[in-house]
Amino acid sequence: MDEEIIVTELAPDALPDVVALCRRALDLPEDAAEAGAVVDALHTRAAADRTVLGLGAYRGAELVGVLIASLSGTDPGLGHVDLVAVDPQLRRRGIGRALLTRAERALAEGGATEVLLAGNPPYYAWPGIDVRYTPAVCAALALGYGQDRTAWNMTADLSYDGSPALRTTEPAERRLAERGIAVRRAELADLPALADFARSNFGGVWDAELAGSVGRPGAGAHLAERDGRILGFAAWGSSRPSWFGPMGTAPEAAGSGIGGVLLRRCLRDQRDEGAESAQIGWVGPVPFYSGSAGARIERVFFLYRKVLTGA
Ligand SMILES: CC(C)(COP(=O)(O)OP(=O)(O)OC[C@H]1O[C@@H](n2cnc3c(N)ncnc32)[C@H](O)[C@@H]1OP(=O)(O)O)[C@@H](O)C(=O)NCCC(=O)NCCS
């Protein structure tokens, strides 16, 4: 690496520079456009729940590389790299390598024996490395990471009125109403019941994503209930405004049409916020999203892992 580049922990007042760097260093426009929300979720909001490490690569006073990493909230032996980006003008000079090497050391000091280049829910911007970030795939391999799983998003088109993603939910809601099921927007007061519902039906993984969606600007959630008992929910915008999820329907209500209604209510919110498309993240039941919203598989991610030597 060039002599004049120094890797150090990010100071709290560096965040505007981090966002500006991500805007020019995330090569995919859909990611660059959401750099502010991504950095806020991965660095600031995540730090309330888990150990977060922010590293900057500096040339003099200029921030030219950034890495955000975290320890898993569920498995203390796992570290995650949540984001890494290097100034496009300064690639292939060892900055990415220096950031990753320093992060591995810090994660090991925090107790990690393995590092994943993969999203660390509930705060994640990508499930893994989008295959179109091919230099990142190359860098992962060069640094000794092995390919683990594959993940994919689906894209729902919100750009025109006739899109299947924006199909009206009214007839389906009428049929549900005949069976005593009401569908409505979730409010802050619903959070405890929603978290209970998600926990008892799907395990305890969605509390933070629900808290990040319900009643927060640029995010939202809808729920279905019968006699005050929740039967399903869908949420959007927790880590990124254009991303949909999570959602869940009680097993007893499966097949009733609740899921499609909740999904399309959220997608309509996202379109009302100005989104031309929505990302259904880290899918999941492809036929359901294809059938209910005409969504198609588009973004594909490779997930990588590396056992730390000496671990
Ligand atoms: C991925 C990224 C951070 C790498 O940063 P970098 O500073 O260019 O990486 P380095 O110079 O340290 O490269 C380390 C090794 O990775 C491999 N590598 C990196 N870019 C490569 C490329 N374009 N083609 C082939 N190999 C590459 C090489 O083996 C390289 O070592 P070498 O130059 O000695 O051969 C940078 O390309 C980037 O910011 N991309 C956009 C953002 C991104 O993709 N982030 C990850 C997805 S969230």
Description:
Strands 1, 2, 3, 4, 5, 6, 7, 8, 9, 10, 11, 12 and 13 form a 13-stranded mixed β-sheet that branches. The mean pLDDT is 95. The longest helix is centred in the first third of the chain and has 15 residues, at 95-109. Helix 9 packs across helix 10 (286-293). This protein is 32% helix and 31% strand. The chain is elongated, with a radius of gyration of 20 Å. It has helices spanning 15-25, 29-32, 35-45, 95-109, 134-142, 170-178, 191-202, 207-213, 258-272, 286-293, and strands at 5-9, 52-59, 62-71, 78-86, 114-117, 129-130, 146-157, 182-185, 220-226, 229-236, 243-249, 277-283, 296-307. By secondary structure, the protein is α+β, with helices and mostly antiparallel strands. It folds into two domains: 5-149 and 303-307, Gcn5-related N-acetyltransferase (GNAT) (Aminopeptidase); 159-275, Aminopeptidase (3-Layer(aba) Sandwich). It contains ten helices and 13 strands. The structure holds coenzyme A.
Helix fraction? 25-40%
Bound molecule types: coenzyme A
At the third CATH level, what is the topology name of the largest domain? Aminopeptidase
* Class by SSE composition: alpha+beta
